Structures are given as C-alpha cells and as structure tokens.
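Take our chain:
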Amino acid sequence: MDPAEGRVLIPDRAPSSSRRPFLWRLYAALGRLAAVVNRLPLGERSVRVESGRLYAETLDRYLAALIWKLGWLEIEESGLIAREVKAGMTAVDVGANIGLHTLGLARRVGPAGRVHALEPEPRNFRLLARAVEAARLGNVRLHAAAAAERTGTLSLYISDANLGDHRAYPDGEHRRTVTVPTVTLDDVLAEEPRVDFMKIDVQGFEVHALRGMDRTLGRSPEIGVLCEVCPELLRSAGGGPEELFRLMRAAGLLPHRIRTSGRYEPVAPRRALEAAESWGYINLYFRRPASGSSASSNTIGP
C-alpha cells in the first residue's frame, strides 16, 4: 500500500479490541464519562469549525464538536466528502445531528447546490437549525423527521448520555421516548431532478431509510451513498446487514472501502460484512460500477 494513501478502513485481519485505534477508545471513554455528567447544566456553547459554528447544550455534543474541530472524528468520511462533493451538487444528510456534516456539505455544494438535512430529535434539530442560521446557509433545507419506508410517526428512544445515539426501536435499555414524524426520502426529494451524494447514519435504521428512496435512486445514476454499517444495530432495528447490501445491490450500488485520504476502492460485500462484524461498525461508500467493470463478485453468498 502506498503510505501516502493512509490507513485502509478494512484491514487484512480483524483487529482485537486492544488494537483498535486509540482515538476510538478515547472517544468511548469520554462517552462513558458523559453518561455521568451529561445532565448537568452546560448552557449553549459553540465551537468554531472550518465550515461555521456548531452548537451544543450537553457535554457529549460539546466534546464531539471539539473532537470534530481537531480533525480526530470521521477522518475517512471527511476526506471522501472533500473529494466527492462538488459545487452545484445536491447532497443529503440523513441523521444530521447537530450539523457535523451538514455545514461542510453546504459549503462544498455552494450557492448553486442544495443540501437536505434530516434530524428527528427536537433538541438536536434546534441546534442544527441554529448552526445553519448562524452560517447563513440559504442552500440548506431542514427536515425535522426520521427517514423511513413510509410517512407517519414513530417512537424515538432517547439516549440522555449520548445525543448521537437515539434509536428508532427499543434496545432493552430503559429510555424515555418522544414521538417524531417519519418521511420517505422519495417524498422529501421529489422535486430534485437528481441526488449526487447522500450520507446515512441513523443508528441501525438505515434499511428502513433505503426502503423509502427507490425513485430517488432510480433517477440519480451518479449518486454515491456514504452509509454506516453496524450489524448489531441493523438487526435490532429489524433489518440486518445482509438486507442492507441486498437493497444497495438491487439499486446497482456496490460497496467501496474508504482510505484516510478519502479515496475509495471496491470491496466484496462478504469481506465488508466480516470487517463490520469484527470492528462493530464500518462506514462504506456505495456507488454504481464504472462502465465496463464487472460486478459478479459483489454478492454475499454461502
């Protein structure tokens, strides 16, 4: 591997927990600490990042914003966005949280482009809207809803310790719930001639979001979908990683692993799934193959 390309997301051998990246373990430890102190009054704080300001009212979101500012969080994904998202594009941020990716997407597509950001949890949505307003991003459309396979409502199970870990299904933990609206991405994006880039990170609800975007995928031949794959959460939500890969393949979208530099390369779904099981989760970039390339190996078989 060319050292300039950086670390490959999917390694040749599954790492043991002791070999996982230091910053991942550090962030997990900070999350456990936040579970104890997250309910203490913090007041609204802002963190200046390259694309604007992020706003937080709890310790966990403030720490996430600081880590984001330092460039320690989602390095591969940020590099991918920098390479793939261009001026004039239409981009979608599904599971926008407080705007970690939304602001950057908006800056990259510019005034001629558009970003749709979906966030169902009321507190996160308010902080997301605050960030978009403060940055004067007229090219962002905000949607206070969860992406699902049908329009309606659902119970969102709230994590008071980690406001990036709300879930659209019960997981055995004692969590309070709020009722939030659901929308299909096909309805949200009905007036967009095409979509060029989409990020989906919805804590295991990715399959349900994908089931509501058939028409969007059909009219967007060049779309790229950056998607979190967490087998445990996908199964808990009633989907599963195999179903996610099946839906992507049905739309002609094949998985690619992401390098630290933001470059990507094809990976067999079986190997990608093995890596997701070993690490707990991975982020993959799904795209249609280049004209003339073979996709015969991109199935999850026995």
Summary: The longest strand covers residues 177-183. The chain is about 35% helix and 20% strand. Confidence is low (pLDDT under 50) at residues 1-20, 294-299.
